[in-house]
């Protein structure tokens, strides 16, 4: 059986490595570009929702958010109704970087899909969305403390 997830992982790691190198000149490292882009695309998102969107734990997201805030790329603002909720927004400086990050993403997509027909891209996209939905369910289940059934748990 082909190990699809291994191939997807290689692609993800390669593109992340490329992006980390390319965005170093903007003082973005370790995937911070991803957080900045998602906040740009979802102004006012709360940190927990951002962590869920990126599929990281809250602590990892909090570290990245703090670094982006320290660099002046994003800011937290209190919610208009519930002052305990802090919403995330890009600053003017962050808004200047977001289109550059989006261009890199578009270019990476173009390179990755360059030898596929429109029909192949459509079918592949549909398949990836199905895989994502499958893994999202599993991720949420494990995050809630459930065990995955791949190991038979026997008591003797």
Describe this structure in words.
The protein starts with a helix and ends in a 13-residue tail after the last helix. A two-stranded antiparallel ribbon has the order 1-2. The protein is built from six helices and two strands. The chain is mainly alpha-helical and 156 residues long. Helix 2 crosses helix 5 (92-112) and helix 3 (47-54) packs across helix 4. It is globular, with a radius of gyration of 18 Å.
* Strand neighbour order, sheet with most strands: 1-2
User: What structural class results from the helix and strand content?
Assistant: mainly alpha
Number of strands: 2
Average of the residue pLDDT scores:
91
Largest sheet: 2 strands, antiparallel
Order of helices and strands: HHHHEEHH
Number of helical segments with 4 or more residues: 6
The level of helicity is: 55-70%
Strand content: 5-15%
Question: Rough shape?
Answer: globular
The parts where pLDDT drops under 50 for at least 5 residues are none
Distance between the amino and carboxyl termini = 33 Å
Rg over CA atoms, rounded to whole Å, is 18 Å
């Amino acid at each position: 059986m082909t190990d699809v997830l291994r191939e997807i992982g290689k692609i993800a790691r390669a593109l992340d490595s490329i992006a980390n190198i390319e965005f170093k000149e903007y003082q973005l490292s370790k995937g911070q570009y991803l957080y900045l882009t998602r906040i740009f695309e979802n102004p006012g998102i709360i940190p927990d929702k951002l962590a869920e969107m990126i599929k990281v734990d809250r602590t990892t997201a909090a570290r990245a958010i703090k670094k982006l805030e320290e660099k002046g790329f994003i800011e937290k603002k209190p919610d208009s109704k519930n002052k305990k909720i802090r919403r995330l927004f890009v600053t003017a400086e962050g808004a200047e970087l977001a289109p550059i990050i989006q261009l890199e993403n578009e270019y990476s997509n173009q390179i990755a899909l360059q030898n596929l027909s429109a029909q192949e891209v459509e079918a592949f996209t549909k398949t990836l969305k199905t895989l994502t939905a499958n893994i999202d369910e599993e991720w949420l289940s494990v995050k809630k403390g459930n065990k995955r059934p791949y190991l038979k748990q026997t008591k003797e």
